[in-house]
Amino acid sequence: MSQRDGYLDILWSQFRKNRAAYIALHLLAPLFLLAIFAPVIASNVPFYYNDRGETLWPWFRALLNPEETVDFWFNTALVAFFPWLVIATLADRIWRRQQVGRWARTGRIAALYVGLIGVVSGVLLIPGVRPDNRYRARTFPEEQFRKGEGVTAVYPPIPFGPTEQDIESSVKPPMYRKPRFVIDSAGREVLNWRKSNDGFPRLLGTDDVGRDVLVRMIYGLRISLTVGFVAVGLYITIGVILGAIAGYFGGAVDIIISRVIEVIILFPSFFLILTLVGLLGQSIYIIMVVIGLTGWPTVARLIRGEVLKQRAIDYVQAARAMGASHMRIIFRHILPNAVSPALVAAPFGIAGAIITEAGLSLLGFGVRLPAPSWGLILRSGSENYHYWWLVVFPSLAIFFTVTVFNLVGSGLRDAMDPRLRV
Amino acid sequence: MSTLVDHDTTKQPSALLSIRDLRTYFFTEKGVVKAVDGVSFDVPKARTVGIVGESGCGKSVTGLSIMRLVAPPGRIVQGSMLFRDGDTVKDLARLPEPEIRKIRGSQIAMIFQEPMTSLNPVFTIGSQILEAIQLHQPDLGSRKARELVVDLLQKVGVPDPQARRHWYPHQLSGGMRQRVMIAMALSCEPRLLIADEPTTALDVTIQAQILELLKQLQAEKDMAVLMITHDLGIIAEMADEVLVMYASRIVEKASVLRLFANPLHPYTWGLFRARPVLGMTKGKELVTIPGDVPNAADLPQGCKFCLRCKFVQDRCREEEPELRILEPGHEVRCHFAGELDYER
To answer: Does the model's ipTM exceed the 0.85 cut?
Structure first.
């Protein structure tokens, strides 16, 4: 740790010393990329379909017209991804020449991506901009491809959809492949394949109505990450703001906020969600909002403590002597020094939210079928454990994802602890 | 109760800051602590006024009261602080908060004792000075503002300012940090700089450099300085006028030359006598003022110094003396000042 380093540089060099945390952090990006690029990897609509000159692009229409809101956001992230890569690379070059600091550049590049996602989704929300998905119910049977020349299609590598049912192939074990021909009631040999399912094996098996497990796991990552980040983002924001206000102003404000904290902290979020879902029906929003509204008191307490500590340090009085307003002092001066416990709590919160959502879906109180949640896959396997692939794979997914976030959180905590500094 | 008071300037001396009967009390659960109890003085334009006294005498609270930085349970209960802002005179004690914020940092600036903790550790020193500039001169433009930052750092003696403005406080030594604080304070060319023991935390050689820097900047910027300290040496070096404070009151007020030549109050005389001097014989006991500063909640009736004064008499214990002008330009709060025979 040289004398030259700023605070973030010190944090980073300490973080790097923790091998597991470092690796886990670098696994976060692939996880996100997997969630963002899910439709590129697995979908039951072709990118391109050409029937003797009639060209269709069903995949793009499906991309912009997803059924779930979760998919809408991730798909806009996908659409914004390549433009972002290009713009970010160019912008980074310019910023390097302007000698913008390393961490400032990182922050700007991240903000650029978020901004682009916002722009794309905003554009898509304008009525009339989105092309309608006229291929939603259309299948592309193999006969069409056998009919003759001139019929081609390009499919994603795993040609199954997350909600695409196939009752004939229900609860099949991994590496199952449908027989190509089947005898129908009249005794004739009929093609059993759709071109989309082209003899591709079910790599991790199917669930009780024939949905492919691998594809549901990949799309399930979207739901887990969404619940994690939205719920935790919500409660960290609320907690930081309220904790900072309580700690800075003290007096009546502090008393009121502290009492509210003491009341809400007793709410068991899991059971509250069970109750609300029982009353209002299954919804991913209930999960996110309830976790968000019951989780902020812990963060608020942490931030309040840090702000109380910082308030007594001279630079706060120096800032006031300089003429800074209360808001400016809280948000620009004190918070950057006080927010580290919240940053440590965040990854652990995300891990907890993922487990909560999976647990709720397992019980049937989480997201609604046919959404591809890991808990729902587990649920379909819960009746009969002989269908081991319905239990093992989602469990591994939950375990792996939660461990990655826990390792990142633990690495952050150690990096911020001044007593562990070399 | 008006915030703008137009005084007839022919009758008023042209003081930059006129404090009259300032009283700042702290209302705690254990009682009222009268930290500043009836302090009046003037700070003339571009001169240095020094406030000297022991810990707990109220000198820091006086400085904070001027900037209205006294936090609850402290409050300015009485008094006026008339500040000459250009042609208008404003009473700092009665200005609403948004008005005071405009004055803080731009017209009156303050530097503090501990350079270690006076700078925000997560921002570079350049960005902290930049913030001070942009807060009060928002139309300056970022390029000009950055140039001003480099300029200021150079002026306060930070080497290689262009590179060092990206440094963090923990990368600088104490003397450098204090220079950065001075740069921040000076960034908007204040009319008055309040320096609250700025060199107490620094070693003697750095102290000399900082004081030299302050004197030079004061001359350049035509700025008044209120130097709060417990060190008579700094007073001798910097001040034109001196106020000696004891137990929340001014006990002696004089020009620095007059004070050093002829300290009239027993406390001041005791302070001068207590300093070790070169050439003293080894083995002799150092002279001290016996006793302690009285507990603010338990002040004696009558003169506050009566419990420790070598010349105490019955009258001192009963009746609190007023601040009287003994000679032109020399005020003392003592019944018997001028009559006492101080052997040297």
So the answer is: no
